Amino acid sequence: MMRLTLTDLPRAAVLLVVAALLTGCSAWSASPTSSYTDSSGETVTVDWADYPAQAGQDGEALLEYPDQAELEPGARQLMDALRVTISDASGADLNAAEPESAWFGDENWYPQEGNGYGGDSLLTTINCCELRSDSIADASQWQTVLDAASETAKDAGLGPFVRDVLPEYCVGRQDQCWFQSATATDGVQWVYLTMEDRTLDSSGDASREADRLDLPLAGIAIGYGATVVQSGRAGEYRNSMQPFTGLDRPVASTSD
């Protein structure tokens, strides 16, 4: 039997084949919908392409949260409190990695391109406010530093610092590991904390890497991030969020 390829078909037929393929792909990634009965007894169906947040984000939590324009004062207060706490607990001075006046500049904000369901998001994410030291307490004191930082985070409404997954070279010897990291979050904003002392790596690999990359041998670092509603769009967000309040978010249908 003779087999035809696209190059053997008339142009019009090729266009029909391509159109059919594209239509099929579109159907495969169609946005999910949810239906519910409202207080008047009417059935309401919502298309998650209209969800104003993001598939991995609790959109309702943002309704009472500061937006992009309002976030800065509280975030600065949190980072200042953590700087004092960590410095007191570790004996190390934490200094800004970039001018603090630039922390909330436009270059540190990243508007989300999609909501994970094929629609637009009204959210934006900031990563900023890095503070670093060039010295660190003895590794036996790292848990004390982490505990003190957790208390400050909880006072600010975040959860405690939770250790991240250990790198492979630390599995089974957490107390002797030369690198540890942890994150505190309230689901909207987060702070990461790292502590490292490359001289503790008995293989010498960590120290050699620091020398090659011109990195400090030891130090503490913290940084801030949050995903919130874009400036000036709080009202639009609230109205768009209303039909989705109380609904369980489906799994994302797109990778944006």
TrEMBL record:
Keywords recorded for this protein, A-Z: Signal
Recorded superkingdom: Bacteria
Secretion signal span: 1-30
Protein name: Lipoprotein
Gene source species: Cryobacterium cryoconiti
